């Protein structure tokens, strides 16, 4: 496979969601929104720096971006210490405020030159504050996006432990196809129904370090289509840019040769997780204090956020 410009047009009706993007600190300078619009990315899960103190600034920026473009972004956050117990209050506060998920969180990293040195990375997926955070994720019905490298050995054994111990938590394995063959992903997917896959197509198609053909993942994606998402990871790989990273996402959809599966992995799977998140106590209090009219029963977190943003309650 390779670059297929015809696919941008062929699949523009899908309204692609990029579930893994680090542009929070510079999307404006980079002109990211215009690029995404050109290639028909409808929404983006946004964060910036991850698992280090700088992420606290990025988290504020991802929220700010969301209040400016509520139709474009789903803000996530990653700025919390891994070992200080006080960090749990930070996580809870962010979830209450209206963030849609935790991550990207470094749950283990040995080989990645970018993530292995981060101050707030965990040693393995059951380390430090992570178990308590999984519990909060279940409570708030938000997913957690985990970076885990290497994708085998102890880090994966401990991921399995987490998947078993927190069956109500939705775990998203970040760029799970990076240095990871479909057989190993199948092993996890077949045993753990609360595991979801962030498929970073641009890496598989363009990075010279990749060893596994895009085609080799397609049967797996078709078999577990309700648990796959697509992402650009901000086009962070060798020989990659947004045009190619997004084109590779469409290549996956095209290779699946099934309209319904294409819709699932492009958009619907992720949308379902977002729309199932209930409004939080903090959101409801803010809305009630300002005497806004709303239908409590029908309102989820996303609708509450939109109401709060439209009325500029967030800025007070
Ligand atoms: Zn990333």
Automatic annotation (TrEMBL):
InterPro entries, per database record: Amidohydro-rel (IPR006680)
Record's superkingdom?
A: Bacteria
**Pfam family for this entry, one:** Amidohydro_2
Please list the residue ranges annotated as the Amidohydrolase-related domain: 47-213
- Name recorded for this polypeptide: Amidohydrolase-related domain-containing protein
């Amino acid at each position: 496979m390779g670059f297929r410009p015809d696919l941008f047009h062929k699949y523009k009706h899908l309204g692609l969601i990029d579930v893994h993007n680090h542009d929070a600190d510079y999307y404006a300078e980079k002109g990211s929104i215009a690029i995404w619009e050109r290639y028909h990315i409808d929404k983006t899960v946004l964060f910036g720096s991850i698992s280090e103190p700088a992420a606290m600034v990025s988290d504020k920026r991802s929220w700010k971006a969301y209040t400016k473009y509520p139709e474009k972004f789903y803000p996530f956050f990653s700025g919390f210490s891994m070992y200080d117990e006080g960090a749990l209050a930070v996580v809870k506060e962010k979830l209450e405020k209206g963030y849609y998920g935790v991550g990207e969180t470094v749950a283990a990293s040995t080989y990645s030159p970018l993530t292995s040195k981060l101050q707030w990375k965990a040693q393995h997926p059951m380390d430090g504050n992570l178990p308590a955070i999984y519990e909060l994720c279940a409570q708030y019905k938000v997913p957690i996006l985990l970076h885990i490298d290497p994708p085998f050995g102890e880090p994966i054994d401990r991921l399995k432990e987490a998947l078993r111990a927190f069956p109500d938590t939705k775990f998203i394995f970040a760029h799970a196809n990076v240095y990871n063959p479909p057989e190993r992903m199948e092993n996890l997917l077949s045993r753990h129904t609360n595991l979801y896959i962030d498929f970073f197509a641009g890496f598989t198609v363009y990075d010279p370090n990749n060893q596994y053909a895009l085609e080799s993942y397609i049967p797996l994606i078709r078999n577990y289509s309700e648990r796959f998402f697509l992402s650009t990871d901000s086009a962070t790989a060798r020989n990659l840019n947004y045009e190619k990273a997004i084109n590779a996402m469409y290549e996956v959809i095209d290779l699946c040769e099934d309209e319904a599966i294409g819709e699932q992995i492009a958009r619907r799977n992720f949308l379902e997780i977002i729309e199932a998140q209930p409004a939080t106590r903090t959101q409801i209090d803010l809305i009630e204090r300002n005497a806004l009219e709303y239908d409590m029963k029908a309102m989820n977190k996303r609708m509450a956020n939109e109401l709060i943003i439209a009325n500029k309650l967030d800025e007070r």
